[in-house]
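Sanity check

After download, print the first record. It should look like this:
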Amino acid sequence: MSIEQQLKDDFQQNDKNVVCPPSIDIRVMNAYGERMREEIGVQSMGRRRRWPKAVMVMLLIAVVSGFAYAGRTLLFEETKGNMTMSAETLEELKLSKAQLERISKARNEVKTQLNPGESAVIYLTDLGNVRSLPFIPVSQPDVNEDLDVWRKALMDRHFDRMPPESLLGTYRFAGGMELSPFGAYVGSETDSAALLEELKAESEETGKDLIWRKTSVPASFPLLTYTTVYRNADQETLYLIMENAPDSKVKIQSLAPPSAEYEELDLNGHGAHYFKNDAYVYTDSHFYQEISWMIEQDGESIIYRLGSDSPAMTKEQLMEAAKNL
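Expected structure tokens:
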């Protein structure tokens, strides 16, 4: 059976249950709401779009996932208000150093060909046996470098806690951007399977081991993600990511390789989750760690994530920065 048919069959069997933020490795969001049960559509910023039953957003790693894989271990699941987040490790995500380097090279190569605000997905033949990685997203973010303007944009999106000017004293505001800082792909089951088939066919026809396509993120989508970037003098980076889903129920699930570390933390009285991954495909360092937590307001929740791709950043430093937020 082809991977395209496997993806289609698995989604049909599990369209109500995703089993897998910018999180550590793979991120799949299954969004649904009461008014989406008969007509899958979501109102956002004055625009509307119909969505098929199996709606997903792929951030950080493009993955057509959400079904049972062998070698899966649940790390946590937490629900507050209208949002649920969970994380698991997956055995098949053990990638070699050569594969990680190949992904980084491909992402950098494609990124240079994108204009600000554009996104794309990449198909690599040497990842063909990794079923949960059919293609990799990459983006060239459109960065807002004015902190006051960025804060106003966040207030307009119903966030009441504004990002500070600096973190840890040495990390200064560098810009704000919509969606994940590492790339995003949004598509239905049908869209994703068709795209994968198209990329694979072109690879077989041309003999190329790298095929890519520009993609677009719909103006109307249940999950809203906003990233504030901070950098220090050594150009090391902190990412403050805030997510909400007004008027929708959202379930965000993450997958990571078995080597990823997880720890439950107390953050100023709130339960928090710490991840560390030294085989991360979205940074040149292949390293990423983050602390995430949820806060509920009037029946709707906001997910906060504070992450870094710098191996020099300690868990204690990340925790200190998170507490100050």
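If your output differs, re-run the checksum step. Summary of this record's structure: The chain has a mean pLDDT of 79.
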